[in-house]
């Protein structure tokens, strides 16, 4: 029987006398929770922050069993025992959608960062990548492990006004705590391929979405925005796939405004 090993996390208390709540962060494919460092200092003025490394990435171990949403949800259970707001970027947003589908009652609000209700294009969702491109990355991962990671991370930065600086940042972060586990990277791509959260677009007042106007990995189409309620979606005009890096202040302000309108409560849905 596979054992769910404890995940690495870092909890940073708010500087305020009375915190407005706790915000848990989930990072994207191949990276780790240090990607959120630019927003932490701005957030701890008001909130407690918990940064989590997903299994097999960063400083978190991974088991020898299946790497899927059920496994990751099990690993995240220690963080789901009390009410908190959650932020998921890219793959992290897919994981967050999975938690909501599991009816985790202590998620008080959710922000999906540069990840729509699907990662692959479909008749319902045009702002995604083609299945053939993801298939190519999956095949290349088996042949050129590190090179494929670098190419995928490069796509995160294409279109950004700070492209070169962001590429350097991701390259510094991806291996700073060792090489991500192959099992986690293969499973992560499969999670991205199967991501389907179209049902979360309707009647979910505590779910918010944000995109980068110049994102090449999740290329935003104008017709896709019509699927969202206006108050629940934000487009960062100068950003690609990393708005919390490219437009840190604006991103943090949007996050605070979104969660500030949502009461921290023990039941989400």
Provide structural commentary:
With 269 residues, the protein is α/β, with parallel strands linked by helices. The protein has a single domain, classed as Rossmann fold (3-Layer(aba) Sandwich), CATH 3.40.50. It contains 10 helices and 7 strands. Helix 3 links the parallel strand 4 (84-89) and strand 5 (107-113). Helix 5 runs antiparallel to helix 6.
What key attributes describe this structure?
seven-stranded mixed beta sheet; alpha/beta
CATH C-level? Alpha Beta
Average pLDDT, all residues: 92
Percentage of residues assigned to helices:
25-40%
Q: How far is the first residue's CA from the last residue's CA?
A: 33 Å
User: What is the domain total for the residues?
Assistant: 1
What radius of gyration results from the CA coordinates? 17 Å
Please identify the oligomeric state.
single chain
Q: What letter string, H or E per element, gives the SSE order?
A: EEHEHEHEHHHHEHEHH
CATH topology: Rossmann fold
Strand order of the largest sheet: 1-3-2-4-5-6-7
CATH structural architecture: 3-Layer(aba) Sandwich
Uncertain runs are: none
Shape: globular
Structural classification: alpha/beta
Largest sheet: 7 strands, mixed
């Amino acid at each position: 029987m596979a054992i769910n090993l404890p995940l690495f996390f870092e909890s940073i208390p708010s500087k305020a006398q009375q915190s407005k709540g706790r915000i848990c962060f989930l990072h994207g494919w191949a990276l780790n929770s240090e990607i959120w460092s630019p927003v932490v200092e701005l957030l701890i003025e008001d909130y407690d922050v918990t940064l989590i490394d997903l299994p097999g990435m960063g400083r978190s171990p991974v088991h020898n069993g299946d790497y899927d949403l059920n496994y990751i949800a099990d690993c995240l259970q220690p963080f789901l025992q009390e009410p908190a707001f959650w932020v998921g970027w890219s793959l992290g947003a897919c994981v967050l959608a999975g938690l909501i589908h599991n009816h985790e009652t202590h998620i008080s609000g959710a922000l999906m960062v540069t990840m729509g209700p699907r990662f692959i294009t479909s008749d319902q969702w045009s702002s995604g990548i083609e299945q053939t491109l993801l298939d190519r990355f999956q095949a290349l991962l088996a042949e050129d492990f590190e090179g494929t990671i670098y190419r995928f991370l490069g796509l995160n930065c294409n279109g950004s006004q700070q492209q070169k600086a962001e590429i350097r940042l991701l390259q510094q972060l991806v291996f700073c705590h060792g090489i991500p586990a192959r099992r986690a990277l293969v499973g992560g791509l499969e999670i991205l391929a199967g991501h389907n959260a179209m049902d979360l677009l309707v009647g979910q007042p505590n779910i918010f979405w944000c995109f980068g106007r110049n994102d090449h990995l999740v290329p935003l189409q104008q017709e896709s925005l019509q699927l969202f309620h206006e108050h629940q979606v934000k487009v960062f005009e100068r950003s690609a796939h990393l708005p919390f890096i490219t437009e840190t202040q604006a991103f943090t302000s949007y996050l605070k405004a979104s969660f500030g309108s949502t009461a921290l409560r023990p039941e989400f849905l």
